[in-house]
Amino acid sequence: MHFLKSRMFAILILLFAATACAQQPPKTEVLWDTYGVPHVYGKSLADMYYGFGWAQMHNHANLLLQLYGQARGRSAEYWGEKNLFRDEIIHLFNIPELAKEHYARQNPVFKSCLDAFVKGVNAYAKAHPEAIGEKFKQVLPIQPTDVTAHALRVLYIQFLAMDDIDETMQVAGRGSNAIAIGPSRSASRNAMLLANPHLPWADLYLFFEAQLSGPGYNAYGATLIGMPALAIAFNAHLGWTHTVNTIDASDRYTLQLKDSNTYMLDNKPVRFIQKSITLKVRQDNGSLQSQTIALRYSKQGPVIMGKKGDAYAVRIAGMERPDMMYQWHQMGAAQNWAQFEAALKLMQLPMFNVMYADDAGNINYFFAGNVPVRAQGNWDFWQQPVDGSQSACIWQQTHPYKDLPKLHNPSTGFLQNANDPPWTCTYPAVLDPAQYPSYMAPRGTGLRPQRALNMIRKDSSITYGELVADKYNTGMEAADRYLDELLAAVKQYPDTAATRAAAVLQQWDRTTDTASTGALLFTHWFDKLKPGMIRTPFDPVHPVTTPAGLKDPAGAVKLLAAAAAEMQQQFGRLDVPWGSLARFRFNNRDYAGNGGSGRYGIFRVINYNEDEDKKYTASGGDSYVAIVEFSKPLKAQVLLSYGNATQPGNKHLGDQLQLLSQKKMRSPWLQRSEVMEHLEERETP
Question: Which of 201, 204, 200, 236 is nearest to 221 (CA)?
C-alpha cells in the first residue's frame, strides 16, 4: 500500500511538472506578420538572437548561405571558377584570419549573442532541409567566424575599399537620405526621424526587416542580410539611421617595382612579404581542381598586380576593430542620448553618417568611421593613386571621436544628409570645414542634398504628414535650376524641334510621378548638358542655389532639339508618361514607377536598368524607409520596397511593390497585441 501511494505521488509530481513545462512560455518565439516581418521574442538576449538567425534563414536561406560561403573565400570551390577572383580578394585581405581574431576578441556581452545567432541559422537548416537549395547546403554548418568574415567583407571590402581594389567590381548606387527634425521646427514639438537607405536591390545589399525583443532590448528596424544586429532602428525612446558618408578610409598606392619580388621605398629596395594559398575550384563536370595563388604584401598593405606588370597596394583603416555588431546592439539598447553617444564613442563602425533623434527632443549628426591621420595632402590628393615610394605617405593612426565632424541640436532645428559632406548637414551652415583637416571630406554638394535642404528650410513648422510628403517628393531640382532659362532660350533662338519640345516642358509638372510627361524629355536634354555650359558653378558659399543658369543659351536649344529628335525616334512622341517606361518589377509583379536618379536632384531616388522590352526596371534606390515621430505613443510608418524575402516560393518577395508605386507606406506593428491581430505564422524554434 505504501509502495502504491509513493508511486501515485511520483506520477502526480511528473504530471504536474509536465503541465508546468507546457504552460511555460518558450525561450524563443517568432511571430510572423502579414508582410513577412518577424517579431522575435527571447527570454534572454541569446534567445532573441537565436530567433533572429532562424528568421533570416526562414526568408533568405539560399542567399544567406551563399554570402557566408563567399565570405569564407571558398565560393569557387562551391560554385565554380567565375568566383575565383572574389576568393583571391578575400584571402589577399586576410578575411578568414581576421574573422577568427574578431570572433576571439568579441565583447563578452555580444559573443554569446553571436553564438546564438549562428545556432539559430543551423537549427533552421536542420529542421527544414527541404527549404534550402541543394547547391547551398554544402556551406553548412555555419560557424561564428563566417558571420564575422561576412561583416568584414561587406563593410570594409565591398563598401569601403572596392574603388581602390578593383573598379570593375564596384557596384554603383550606394546612397541614402536621412532627416532629423527638432522640436523648434516640428509642428507637434516632437522630434522626427527619416531613415531612407538607397542600395541595389540584390545580393549582399538587401535589407532584412525585423523587431527584436529581449531583456533590456526592444527595437524595430532593418539590417543587411547576414548581419546579426539591427543596423538602422528605433525603439520607444530614440532612433538612428545611416547614410554612406564621404569618408576616405582606404587608399591606393602605386608601387615602383625593381623586380617581381622587390619594390622601392625611400630609394631602397624592399622585398615583398609573400605567401601562397591553395584554392579548390569546381569544374563544369563537378570535379575539384587545386589552384595555387601567390599573395604579396608591402608596407602599405596587400598588393594587387596589374595586367601590364604594374603593381599597387591598398591600405584600409580600422579592420582590426572587432566590435561593429556590438556597437549596433548597444545603439539599439540605448534609452537616451547619453547612452547612445557612449555607443558611438566605441568607434567600431568603419564608415557611415549617423543621424539620430529621440523623445527628449534631441537630434544629432555624426560623421562616423576611421579617418586616417595624414601628415600631408588634401582631399583631392588622397583621391588619386598615392606615390608608394615615400614612406611618409603611409599613415599609421586614425582620428578619435572628438576629431570627427558632429552637430547636436543646431539652432536651425533640423539636420539632413543625402551623401553630401558634413558641411551641409543643416542650413545656414554651422560646421566649418576650415576647422578640420583638409583631407576630412570634400566641399561639393550635389543636387539631391540641395533638394533636401530646400524642402526643409522653407518650412518652419513641419508636420508628420509633410515629412512623409517630402520623402516621396519626386521633383527635379535640376529643372528648378535650368528649365525657365531653357524655355526662354527657345523663344530667343527659335527652332522647330526645340519649340515642340518646349511646349511639352512648359506643361510638365517638373516631377517624376507616374503620370508626369516631360520628365523623360528633360532628362534626355540634361544628360547632354556639359559642365562648361553652366553659368554659375557650385559655390560653397551658396550651397543651396548653385550650380545654376545657362552660359550658352543657343547651345542649350540645340541640345534640346537633339533630345527631341532622339525621343521622337525612340518613342514616337515627346510627352511620354514617366511610369509607362519606368517600372517596378519583382517576382512577376509589374507596377508603374516613379522617382529617379539623384543626379537630377530627385529626393525619391530610384535607379533603373533597361530591360529586354526596352522599358526601365528599378534595380536600386529606395530600399528600407522608416519615418518616426517620437510622440507618446510613438508614430511610425515603414516600407521595404522589394519585400522581406528572397527564398523561392516565399509570397513576400515583391509584395510591397504596389505600395511603392502608390507612394504609400505601412504601419509597423510594434505591440504584441497588434502583431497577433496581423499574425501569419507562429514559430517556437
Answer: 236
Residue 130 phi/psi, 5° resolution?
-70, -15
**Cα 445 off chain centre by:** 20
Place of cell 511571430: 31
- Starting from the edge strand earliest in sequence, which strands make up the sheet with 386-387, in order? 273-282, 288-297, 302-305, 311-316, 250-254, 386-387
Strands 606-610 and 28-33: unpaired
The whole-angstrom separation of Cα 150 and Cα 129 is: 23
Contacts 24+ apart (CB under 8 A), 532-541: 538/444, 538/445, 540/423, 540/433, 540/443, 540/444, 540/445
Cα–Cα dist 520/563, whole Å: 10
Q: Is the peptide bond before 633 cis (omega within 30 degrees of 0)?
A: yes
Report the share of the chain in percent with pLDDT over 90.
94
Query: How far, in whole angstroms, is CA 245 from its chain's centroid?
Result: 11
Answer for the pair 664, 510: CB distance below 8 angstroms, yes or no: no
Q: How many angstroms separate the CA atoms of 297 and 271, rounded? A: 9
Torsions phi, psi for 667 (to 5 deg): -85, 130
Please report the sign of the dihedral spanned by the C-alpha atoms of residue 12, residue 16, residue 21, residue 23.
positive
| 554-579 tens-digit pLDDT | 999 999 999 999 999 999 999 999 99
With cut-offs at 50, 70 and 90, classify the pLDDT of residue 21.
very low
In this prediction, residue 586 carries a pLDDT of 86
Rounded to an integer, what distance in angstroms lies between the CA atom of residue 529 and that of residue 523?
10
Locus of grid cell 598586380: 305
Where do the H-state alpha helices sit in 72-133? Answer: 75-79, 84-92, 95-104, 108-127
- Return the C-alpha cell found at 631: 510622440
Question: C-alpha cell of 541?
Answer: 558659399
Type of residue at 344: L
| Cβ-contact 477, 448 below 8 angstroms | yes
Q: Which three cell numbers stand for residue 652?
A: 513576400
DSSP secondary structure letters along 265-307: ETTEEEEPEEEEEEEEEE-TTS-EEEEEEEEEE-SSSEEEE-T
Identify whether the C-beta of residue 659 lies closer than 8 Å to the C-beta of residue 665.
Answer: yes
Residue 129: all three cell numbers together: 532541409
- Residue 674 CA, chain-centre distance (Å), reads 29
Which amino acid belongs to residue 118?
A: V
Among residues 606, 578, 654, 660, which one has the least CA distance to residue 200? 606
Residues 6+ apart with CB under 8 A from 163: 170, 250
- Grid coordinates belonging to 274: 609573400
Which is nearest to 383 in space by CA: 539, 543, 249?
249
Is 588 in a helix, a strand, or coil? coil
pTM of the model: 0.95
- C-alpha–C-alpha distance, residues 576 and 583, integer Å: 14
Nearest CA among 520, 444, 450 for reference residue 480: 450
Instruction: Give the separation between CA 148 and CA 100, rounded to whole angstroms.
Output: 8
pLDDT in tens, 179-201: 999 999 999 999 999 999 999 99
Which whole number is the average pLDDT over 457-461? 96
HSE (CB half, 13 Å, CA atoms) of 496? 1
